[in-house]
Amino acid sequence: MAGVTEQTTRVPLADLSPAELEVFLDRQRAAYQSLLDRGLRLDLTRGKPSEAQLDLADRLLTLPTTRTDADGVDVRNYGGLAGIRQIREIFGELLQVAPEQVVAGGNSSLTMMHDCLTQLLLHGAPGSPRPWVREERVRFVCPVPGYDRHFAMLAHHGIEMVTVPMREDGPDAGVVAALVRDDPSVKGMWIVPTYANPVGAVCSQEVAAALASMPAAAPDFRIFWDNAYAFHHLTEQEAKSADILTLAAVAGHPDRPLVFASTSKITYAGAGVAFLAASADNVAWYLSHQQFASIGPDKVNQLRHAEFFGSAQGVREHMAGHRAILAPKFAAVQAALSAELDGLGVATWTKPTGGYFVSVDVLDGTASRVVALAKAAGIVLTPAGAAFPHGHDPHDRNIRLAPSFPVLDDVQTAMTGVATCIALAAAEHLQARHQTERSTPEDASLES
Amino acid sequence: MAGVTEQTTRVPLADLSPAELEVFLDRQRAAYQSLLDRGLRLDLTRGKPSEAQLDLADRLLTLPTTRTDADGVDVRNYGGLAGIRQIREIFGELLQVAPEQVVAGGNSSLTMMHDCLTQLLLHGAPGSPRPWVREERVRFVCPVPGYDRHFAMLAHHGIEMVTVPMREDGPDAGVVAALVRDDPSVKGMWIVPTYANPVGAVCSQEVAAALASMPAAAPDFRIFWDNAYAFHHLTEQEAKSADILTLAAVAGHPDRPLVFASTSKITYAGAGVAFLAASADNVAWYLSHQQFASIGPDKVNQLRHAEFFGSAQGVREHMAGHRAILAPKFAAVQAALSAELDGLGVATWTKPTGGYFVSVDVLDGTASRVVALAKAAGIVLTPAGAAFPHGHDPHDRNIRLAPSFPVLDDVQTAMTGVATCIALAAAEHLQARHQTERSTPEDASLES
Question: Which domains does chain B have, with CATH numbers?
Answer without folding.
Answer: 4-52+317-435 (3.90.1150.10), 79-310 (3.40.640.10)
